[in-house]
Amino acid sequence: MATPQEEALAIFASVVDNLTTADADLKSVLRRSTHAVRLLGWQENLSWLEAELNGFGPDQALPWYRTGVRAYTTWRAYTLDANAKLVITENRAGEPAKRWFHRDIRAGVAQLLAAAATGFATRTGREDTRHLPSWDQRVPIEEVEVVPGESAAGVLRGLEDALFQYASRGYAVLRFGDTVGDVWRDYRTSVDQALARVGLQDHLEAIRTGLESDNPERWRQAMWACRDLLRDLAAHLWQDSRETYPHLKDKDGNPMSVKSDRYVNRLKAYFHQKGVTGTVGEYLRAELDRINSSIHTLNKLYSEAHEAVSREDARLAAVTVYTLLGEFVARTDMQPVVEYPAHGEPVEP
Fold first, then answer.
1. Most exposed among 72, 294, 333, 346, judged by the fewest C-beta atoms under 10 Å?
2. Given 116, 149, 182, which residue is the final one in a domain?
3. Is residue 255 part of a domain?
4. pTM for this one?
5. CA 142 to CA 125: how far, in whole Å?
6. How many domains would you assign to the chain?
7. Nearest to 166 by CA among 276, 45, 287
8. How many CB atoms lie within 10 A of CB 233?
9. Residue ranges of the chain with pLDDT lower than 70?
């Protein structure tokens, strides 16, 4: 019998496969993803998936692709035909042009799928009567907010992208989680000891306690603690007073700045000065840029959307930073660069 993890792994694999085809069934994908999340006990994501299925409540935070969606208001006339069915036509008797605006979309996936071709309308509560020449009679009219089909389709595309990213990440966590755990355990002793020697163990403790908390604000603090750890590590490892490092160039071809506020550049220079050059050095310098950019970008996006940082994003940042610290411990002596030679090649460790 398959374990919950194995069953969830198979579900995420099928979801990723489905979402790479042109005719993915989003309702089915959402239901299967919800089942996988329940199997795993990932409660922080369950409310999002259920809301995508059934619609978001008035107080629920919306993902980015459901906010700022183009819609318009207009008036429509309605009457009952002989079969007592509601017949709707837009009023064309001199009413103002459509008024476009941006709104949030809280409808569930079924309504969005139905609206992708024709859009959907919501009553505003304003009513009136108007003589329509085409009907040669006075008829009741009502104001409605209309979400056009292309706007509904845009929300669905955003949802599809979010589901693909989520399922892909879930698959990777389940498929390679043991491997990541082994790497974490292998690095833990050496990294912890190295950080303790340079007085930075408090940062690591802040990251750990933040990730263990159920408070989303603590997850944000854990993410910023990752940034602070790299900043203070750079201040300890790079103590040369010069403002540039001539052995590495910036994007404009100038000597790389290593001023006190350029902590990522200082860590790059430290790797280089300790002899971590060539392909490995280039890769680790790129990783420093990527990690720093990711932390800043995630916090910026969450701040602008007024949403809490997710535990998964904070956890990913922590694991990545911790693994990078392992590279410092494994490839250097962790002794500060106080003054490097003004000329010549970097000093070997």
1. 333
2. 149
3. yes
4. 0.51
5. 7
6. 2
7. 45
8. 24
9. 1, 22, 78-97, 132-135, 176-189, 294-309, 342-349
CA distances from 348 to 214, 238, 239, 273, 344 (A): 45, 15, 17, 7, 12
Cβ atoms within 10 Å of 276's Cβ, excluding its own: 21
User: Tokens representing 21?
Assistant: 């085809």
What is the C-alpha separation between 258 and 288, in angstroms, rounded?
A: 14
Reduce the DSSP state of residue 1 to 3 states and report it: coil
- Residues 222, 327, single domain; the answer is yes
Answer positive or negative: Cα dihedral of 128, 133, 138, 140.
negative
Residue 289: inside a domain, yes or no? Answer: yes
Residue found under tokens 């949030």: 104
User: Domain with 323 in it: what CATH number?
Assistant: 1.20.120
- Per-residue pLDDT tens for 33-92? 999 999 988 877 888 999 999 999 998 888 889 999 999 988 877 655 544 344 445 544
Amino acid at 325: L
Do 203 and 143 reside in the same domain of the chain?
no
Same domain, 223 and 321: yes
CA distance 35 to 46: 9
Residue 11 identity (one-letter amino acid):
I
**Dihedral (C-alpha) 51, 52, 57, 60: value to the nearest 10 degrees?**
80
Burial of 208 (0-12, 13-18, 19+ CB in 10 A): middle
**Same structural domain, 144 and 203:** no
Give residue 323's domain range.
198-331
